[in-house]
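Worked example

This section walks through a single chain of length 305. The input is the sequence exactly as stored; nothing has been trimmed or padded.
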Amino acid sequence: MSMQNSDGHDVQALIEALQAQLDRQEKQIQSQAEQIRQLQRSRNWFRNSHSGIMIGLLMAIVFAILFWDGRFALAMSHTGSEPDGLVDGANVQIASINSPTSALSAPTYIYNPEGLRLSRNLLWIDNKASTQLQQPVNSRIAIIGSTSGYDNVTGNIRVGVLGWADTAGVTSTDGYGVWGKGTGERAIGVFGESVESAGVLGKSTSNLGVYGFSSSGVGILGYSQSQYGVSGSSDDSYGGSFYGGLAPLRLIPATTPGAPNLGTHKMGELYVDSVGNLYFCTQDGTPGTWAKLNLSTVYLPSVTK
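Given that input, the structure is written out below as tokens.
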């Protein structure tokens, strides 16, 4: 039976990881101790040598070459130019520039070692001031970006994750600041959630704020348990504009005939009963005042013989 700490991590896996890290550090200490012993032997030999001055100059030159080569190798490792990436188990360099030199440079992967030792999250970057946000329960997340807490700078926009795409000057390539993809009937590409504000906000200066597209399903679906499913408004134009290959708009008929006789209704509502009669609400109330629109004239499509 595996034991877990308060954060949900496998205690045995943490112990094994710490033991592996201690083993690596012990090997490094042994290697450094051997280097010190070699330097001490070299110093003793140098003291006993009659050609100490010449040998000292030679060693200084060799040391300078090795030191410069070591700095160069360290810089190359920080720029991410190694074609094979980091060695398994090596430390990830933080606060350094990682820029591949070619398209063949391997990326850096952070992943779970096996399916039975999964982490609740692999990478959490939190720009917090005082209080750290809590990960949603019953969730397993690859990357978390969060911003929380109070700061003294007014007007700061809190952004957990920023995705940016620039296609200026490029006419044949699409760009997406954030790409969400889900595979499976219950996998949603992008999910937005908010307690007191908008779950998803789309904004554009001169184009569509939100665009929904589907090749075989519904382009955009709005649903609410207690308010409007979809609400549209405009300062200088129409609140809604519709086009359809069959018809611009369809009101789904009710299951019973006649005007509504239950619930509170508002002036301006349209209602189609089960037999195709169209009603218009002329006054607020419960159930409101309804007028049946005159549809005595029926227009049939013309048939070309």
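What to look for: Residues 11-129+140-148 form one domain.
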